[in-house]
Input
Amino acid sequence: MKKRIIISVFMLVFYACFIGGFRLHWLYAAVLLILSQAYALFYYKISRKGECAKEDYYEVTVYMEQFLCSYKRLGHVRMAWEDCCNLFEEKSNIYQAIQRAIYIMETGGNGQGKTILSGAFCEIESIYNSRRLEMMHRYIAQIEKTGGEVITAIDMMLGDLQSWKQRTAVYQKKKSFLRKEFFLAAVFALLMCCATHMILPCNIVHRVENMTVYQVSTTVVLVSLPLFVLFVYNNCAKSWLDSSHRFGDTLEEEFPYWLWSVSLYLQQDSVYHALQQSCHGLRGELAEEVRRLLENIYEQPNSLIPYVQFFRNRDLPELHSGMKLLYSFSSNGNPDIQKQVYFLVEQNQRMIEQRELNRQQIALSAFQLVKQIPMLIAGGKIVLDAFIFVLQMAQG
Output
């Protein structure tokens, strides 16, 4: 509450200074003062949104890391959750979610039509929209069902988690720097407008200030520049998590994550069963194609054709090489299958990293373009003021 009051007072003082400096009419001044409080409220909500996004990311990454390490050591979901609870405060969202998950395991009911363990995992997934979190839970649920050695797959997930954390940290630092740049650009734009206003001759400036076009243009500038700052801040405050619904059904975005889940299941199952397990959570075109692939493999279990026909019309070299490796795994008498699985994992990790870096670069490029808007607004204001000044000079 104290922070909100400070922001409100700052916005009032900020606008009062510019209202006095530009000598705005009381009607426009009233509009700006009202908007100042609306902007203060929006900024407070955006700052809270950013804090929550950072907190959610921290909770998810710490939870995943600790859960995987504890499960690798203890081999039991309930005990792994108890280890995780020691890292969080009781009032935190993740602690409460874990406690609800433990309760579901103890009582044996979840009311969602799922298995007990899947329902328990859903209690955590429902709070955090994270692709990696869902993949980890699905894999652990399958291991609990079928049993088997998990050390290699957990090491793979831990390695992927560390790489993701490093990329996210770099990306967020770049966004924070751009946010500061945009704020300074908006401040500099306002100072340019002030400087232009101050150099007008005294015998002309009062006549210019009384013109409606000057009053309106100044008000528009004082409304739009903070509005653009809030727009950028709001985009910078978006979720840090790797949302599982962010990119829809785009094959180029979904395929690396799907192949990553197949790689995990290959540690325990055959290619056919790994593909079956990977179907959970798929949507759109990829889901249909995987189901068609399974049908074709069932009809021609020893043939290369089903793998070659998988998205054969798409020009994605990584996709086709990955499918050929899967066929190689499914072939009998392959002595180097574990080595080839590692090769598939490394190749897929590079794909995931490149896709995520590309998305981040596109987002940063968009911020760079938006950063020019304050100067365009200030430039338009200066040109308009100069035009009004010339007209007043011509009228004598």
